[in-house]
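Moderator note: this is an archived Q&A kept for reference. The question asked for a predicted structure of one protein chain; the sequence and the answer are reproduced below.
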Amino acid sequence: AELELHVDGFRSVSLIGQMSLTSEDPMAVNSKDNPNAVVPHEVNTGRVEGTTLTLDLPPFSWNTVRIQTR
């Protein structure tokens, strides 16, 4: 899914990093036998145009985004 964020009020915005917690299997869970079935990983799906940040988010995911503003 594409997410568009408008971060008006700043002179500039830059994307510092993005982490995503996801799995190809939406029913996947971590367990004692498989503790790394679902782990966070760094992704680079974001782009900045002016003060608009656009992210392409994987389905069934939890994401964190770090931005720098001026």
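Archived answer notes: Strands lie at 2-6, 13-22, 39-42, 46-49, 52-56, 62-69.
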